[in-house]
Structure formats: C-alpha cells, structure tokens
Amino acid sequence: MTNIRETIAAARGQDDPLLPTDQEAPRFTTSQFNNGTQSQEILELPSATLSISTLSFKDGFHIVLFDGVVCQPVTMPIRDSGEYLSLAFLKNGAVNTRDHQGDFSYSAEPGCGALMRHGSFSGEATFMPSDTFQMVSICMPRGYLAEFESPFERIPEHSGNLFAYLPVTVTPTMRQCVDLLLEAPKNDVSGQLFLNAKACELMSLTVQALLNQNPHPPGLNPQDVKRIYRARDILDEQLESPPTIPKLARLIGTNDFKLKRDFRMILNTTPHAYVIRRRMEVAHEALTLTDTSITAIAQKVGYNNVSHFSSTFHKHYGVLPKQLKQACQARSQPQFL
C-alpha cells in the first residue's frame, strides 16, 4: 500500500517533479502501541501544509487522518502497490483525482464518501485551495470485510489495473463518526482504542449504506449493468458533444426507455444530469489549474454561449467562473510586505 512518504519520494525522483525538490523532507515521527504503530507526517510546501496521522494495526487495518491548509492547487502523484480496499470521507476541501491512462477522473467535494478497490494504480491527486482541508481514509487488505467486496462485482475496472470506485451516500451518523475521528486525541491508548472503535463503526454504517443503495437493482442482470457503465464512459469521452439518447442507446445495444431507466437505477441520475455534472467538474479543474480563458473552457465542455455556461456553473458551485478564476489568480500572486 502506498503512503505519503512513498508518494513524495516518487515525486522527487521525476525529471519534472510535481512537488518542489528544494523543500525539506516532511517532519516524521513514529511510535509503537500495543496493537500497532502510530505515525505523523507534517508536509510543508509553499502552497500547503498538511498533517497526516496514520494508525497502523497489526491485522493490516489503517486509519489515515488528513488535516491542513491548501493555499494554492497542489498536485501529488499516486502510486499504489498491492491490492487493498479503502474508505475515504472528505469533510472539508476538494480533491481532483485522475489516472495516467486517462481512463478515470473524479472530483471529490466536501461531504462526499467513497469505497475504492485499489490495484497497481498510477495517477495524481490535485488538492484544491481550502482554508481547512480534512479527510479520513480507512484502508484494509482485500478480504478484510466480505461486505465490501461484493459491490465491486458490478463495477468495471479502470485501465485494467483493478482500481474501481463506488460513491457512498453519507448519512448524518456517518458524518458524526468522521468528525469524531478527526477530533479525537491520538497520542494515548484510550484515544487509539476510540479511533479503532469509531473506524469500525464507520465501516459498519458504510455496509448499511451500501445495502440501502441497492447495489443489485431488481430486474437488472450483469450485462445490463455493464451497458450502463459503457454508456457512462461514452458520455465521459464525448462531453463536448455527447450523443443523443437514441444514439447512445444504439451504441450500447439497448433502447431509449431501458437506457434512461437503468441509468437512473444504477447511477442515481439521468444521462443529461450526468453530462452537466461532469462538464462542470472538468470546467472547475480547468479554471483552477490552467490559464485557459473562460470562453475556451466553456467551448471545451460544450457551451458556445458563455453566459449559459456561467449560469450553469454558478448553479452547480455557487460561484461564477470569473470569480473562481480571479480568486485562484490572486492566491498565486506573490505577497509583498
């Protein structure tokens, strides 16, 4: 399983590193406790400071807590070695993740959760500007909990690397667990026991949430599910000019009615709403990470009318594209006394 130290080492070894090579190595402390090891890393960059606390238990179970400030977008490589499962819950901040093959990308927003199956994944994560960045990740070996394996039977792998991703509906009780994990003391035995108990409770709540999400909708066979994920992939590939519903249905070998019904049953949205969301995610990434003009970004995601694009973006994120771009540019300017 990868960790932050391996990630930083990988970045420093690249010809064009994603992280500055002239920075000091992160401060790292480690200590033993009865059932495992606790470590803390302080990653300090010109544009971000992140504290990463890791509790590693002897049965291969890990709790990783992120807390910090991100002033400007920070991109870090992801190198997964070995197969494992992880639960991730983002309380504050935003992270855009993509693989190097271009087969998978996802924008995580505050309050979201996900169950992931990892393999030999190679990609990068971009931490977006945030006054407070907080995330909880729970990692475990494959087979640790059978209830976390079965949902992936219907999820196609990305890039043939065993990686798969499943959104989790986060309930108020789950959010409370996330808050307690982030706030609990970590340096004494009682704190470590509490963290372990809360992580197990969060896993139990996730199992219940997955059951409530009905991972095997009635009336759908595995071929139906594969068709819908193929439809999703086609929409991702053709965001600028997506196919019509009839054409998309023909491409995946079904009819209009079944496409719309199954798409909603499996992905909990409509094809049209999915395209809008993905367009806005791509636009958000371009606005915050590139110097591309708003007009060019609008055209890239299928909008010839910039006003229509701005209105849709504002409805989705609560901020106009121009305002977001100006805020990112202001953060990137050098500050003088």
Automatic annotation (TrEMBL):
Gene3D superfamilies for the chain: Homeodomain-like (1.10.10.60)
Keyword hit for Transcription regulation: yes
A Pfam entry, by short name: HTH_18
GO molecular function: DNA-binding transcription factor activity; sequence-specific DNA binding
Keywords per UniProt: DNA-binding, Transcription, Transcription regulation
InterPro entries membership: Homeodomain-like_sf, HTH_AraC, PchR_regulatory_protein, Tscrpt_reg_AraC-type_HTH
HTH araC/xylS-type domain boundaries: 229-327
Superkingdom assignment: Bacteria
PANTHER family in the record: REGULATORY PROTEIN PCHR
Name recorded for this polypeptide: AraC family transcriptional regulator
